[in-house]
Amino acid sequence: MKIAVFDTHPYDLRALKEANAQRGHVLEFFEERLHDKTAELARGFDAVCPFVNCRLTESVLLKLKELGVRLVTLRAAGFNGIDIAAAARLGIKVTRVPAYSPEAVAEHNFALILTLVRKTHRAYNRVREQNFALDGLEGFNLHGRTYGAVGAGRIGQCALRIAKGFGCKLLAYDPYENPKIAAEIGFEYTSLDRLLAEADVISLHLPLTEQSHHLINARTLALAKRGVVIANTSRGGLIDTAALIDALKTGQVGGVGLDVYEQEEGVFFNDLSDRPLQDDTLARLMTFPNVLITSHQGFLTREALSAIAQTTLDNALAYERGEPLANEVSSA
Predict the structure, then answer these.
(1) pLDDT in tens, 192-238
(2) Is 214 a catalytic residue?
(3) What is the spatial order of strands in the sheet that 2-5 belongs to?
(4) 32 classed as catalytic
């Protein structure tokens, strides 16, 4: 199958080429994201392979169909950038990578949390300037604290296991409860309101849907324990950024670790160091000493990249062979 790979970075190219050595697709790589102005690049291809910040609207999908594209093999778990209903109407199949390395994202989640609660980012910068004072670097133990996972799917479960290792009390909110997993790991399902009220640390592990959009907002932040630490390695749109900034200014939120941001498209994954940052909201977030932002790198481990590449190309292989698509995204 001939596949156009969009929004390609060196790590994507390496992983996909290595995985393709045993699969035999014809791959062509484009640095451009897939959207209305770049869809023409897919001419002559059987499939396109977008990433999370590509935008496959109905008009883009219609153009892809006209160009002969029959498959969208997304190399990510989240598919909110694709109009799934339109793809179904046009007869274009959409597949994704539902699980690659949940440990990679969960571990990055805790890298953010530990950095925030022990202020290691600030200590690192001080020591590099030969300032060895400890004033202002007081943190808190995770042991004995309440850890709340908003979303207890594969990644949320990994995060809860890590939190258990630190000796935390474990709470989880998820629309779809699995009592067997809860008993195995040792966490308690509860309402979102109770989790917000009791958790010292909250991490977000939900997909972005109409129901979860801005789940963390002015109302829910007001319910949280004062000084709560929040980490988001899922989707930026789960948090109302303006409300988060207000809560940071009042001290209601004591620290935030973000690997995702609701307006990250066109910013994250790019080197913008030689130009002024145009996003005033992101610039404001970056002024807080208790806000830690990474550029959507939770998936960026060798193990995760390999698993993503293999599943992405296996999805295309199954389609080419007329086999059932285990990872198809349905509009239902």
Answers:
(1) 999 999 999 999 999 999 999 999 999 999 999 999 999 999 999 99
(2) no
(3) 26-29, 2-5, 47-49, 71-73, 93-95
(4) no
